[in-house]
From TrEMBL:
Keywords for this protein: Stress response
Gene3D superfamilies named among the record's database cross-references: 2.60.40.790
Protein's organism: Halorubrum californiense DSM 19288
Name of the molecule in the record: Heat shock protein Hsp20
Similarity-based family: Belongs to the small heat shock protein (HSP20) family.
Superkingdom of origin: Archaea
InterPro entries: A-crystallin/Hsp20_dom (IPR002068), HSP20-like_chaperone (IPR008978), Small_HSP (IPR031107)
Domain named SHSP: residues: 25-137
Length: 137
């Protein structure tokens, strides 16, 4: 039995879907799609930010959280164009991720290629108090 929520249709009509983000007064307030991976020696966050320039992306770590924000304005006004509809005025994307306690922020690095931002943060070795893990065969 497939049940639908009538509010889902209203939200889709208004442009507020879980995947599209919220729209308010020509401003697109979305969250970036991300992948987060934690390895033995590093923490990696990959965020999809297609269409943004490097200088429009801001990456900050504060109080144990990594925040990725990107903001851009649409292309400049063109007097020769007569728009029938114009929604691409401004776009703002943001995402925040909790960082592991062992993150070494001073050694963090970020790259942006082909619309994907990759933030790599080295991790300190686990505390000696945790002991040494022995694999069971």
């Amino acid at each position: 039995m497939n049940t639908t929520n009538p509010f889902d249709e209203i939200e889709q009509f208004l442009g507020r879907t879980p995947f599209a983000g919220d729209r308010a007064w020509g401003r697109d307030l979305r969250t970036a799609d991300i992948d987060v991976a934690e390895y033995d020696d590093e923490f990696v966050v990959m965020a999809d930010l297609p269409g943004f320039d490097r200088d429009e992306i801001d990456v900050r770590a504060h109080e144990g959280r990594l925040t990725i924000a990107a903001e851009r304005d649409a292309e400049r006004e063109d007097a020769d164009r007569r728009y029938l509809r114009r929604e691409r005025r401004h776009e703002s994307v943001t995402r925040t991720v909790d960082l592991p306690a062992t993150a070494r922020l001073d050694d963090a690095a970020a790259t942006y290629r082909h619309g994907v931002l990759t933030v790599t943060i080295p991790l300190d070795a686990p505390d000696a108090d945790e002991g040494h893990r022995i694999d069971v065969n």
